[in-house]
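General statements about sequence and structure are easier to judge against a single worked case. For one protein, we set the task of working out the structure tokens from the amino acid sequence alone. The sequence in question and its structure tokens are set out directly beneath this paragraph.
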Amino acid sequence: MMTDLQSFSQDSRRNISLHLDIETVFFAILFLGFCSVFTGLKVAEVASIDLTPFDLACLVTAPVLITSMLLKARVPYSHGFMLFVSFLLLSSVLAFAISFRNGLRELVQAIELILFAAILIYYRGRINWDVLVKWFLFVAFIIMVYNIWWHISNGFWVGWKRLNEPKLLFTYAVPALFALLLMRKREAGLGDYIILIGIAVLLLFSGERKAQLALLLQMFLLFLGGFLRVGVVLGAGAVIAPLSIYFISTDSYLQHQLLSVLNIRDAFDFSLIDIASGQTELTQSNAQRVFSKIVSAELIRDNSFLGVGTNGYEIYVKSQYEGLPIFLLLGIHNEFQRILVENGYVGLALYCIPWLRSLAFLVLISSRRLVRPALIGSMFYVACFFQCFFESSGLEAYLAFLVVAILPELIKSGMRPLQRGVLGSP
């Protein structure tokens, strides 16, 4: 009897001939548009809204691909898709509470994301995830090399997160790499442990704390799943730990980053006056998080049911606290908190249901001894959770939520025989 690893990986490389068609070309364009999200590129500005390559890719490909679905009398549907749509529609409606322009902007973005989600749901059974992950990692490698080069060339030998979009790959490229390894191997080999050490060093120098925390949890899950051996990792840790301690002790930025993680609980002992006066030793990001939690508590108390309206928090703090440092007046760096503030308990419930559904699904298939698919899904779930829990709102946060919302459907499709190439026959 085939094991779950063989079913998940060997079947996915089944050799089925593929004829290049218009759908494949348009899907490739959409894939490149998705990858462009991590570059931060803007191609135009329309009505004070930045137009990105992802927007253009959706605009060009979605009508053709959606029309192809309808001509075949097939409508994309799944429970995760409908939950995703429900939240986006509520968020868009509540955006009109701020202004018509704000609501229109959110509605256009919601329609774009719904079309993208519909395409993923419809084509999920034809996607060769093995090939797609390889191409994503190739593009991610190029972007990360540029990101690191840009920082070093500008005198930043550590802390490679000053380019907002490229730094996301420190969080998202790692689960993609783990997924590729899990699809191919039952247990990590020497080369895989070397890769793991390289990832740990890279994230240490990047200073991207959410990616570091995600890696720790991902490694723990890989232990539980039997992919990593505790003894080997502890041995490798004993070798690289002294080097890590040395680099941290000689670099003030790395020291500051480490202390900001260890002292995060102490940060919440400060009052709004302490934060506003700047009489704390907090990093700017931690100070902003504490400030947003204090202000959020007031807004939640007064607007608990449907919130203050999508994008309302940032507008509120900039009008009520305009004399404070600008870094305190940024958007909330936690999607769960932002949604509670801006969309109330109703919005938070709609947002959390997909997270709980996907988590329950991963636990269920793991209990049924489908450990490898559960591990692959968990790698992405962890990355998306840490990104949404510690980062501000934006297209990237919505895409992470989309991945979580339809994660059960994507995992199920990955457990079926897949075709060679990006797309195969339906």
User: Anything to note?
Assistant: The radius of gyration is 22 Å.
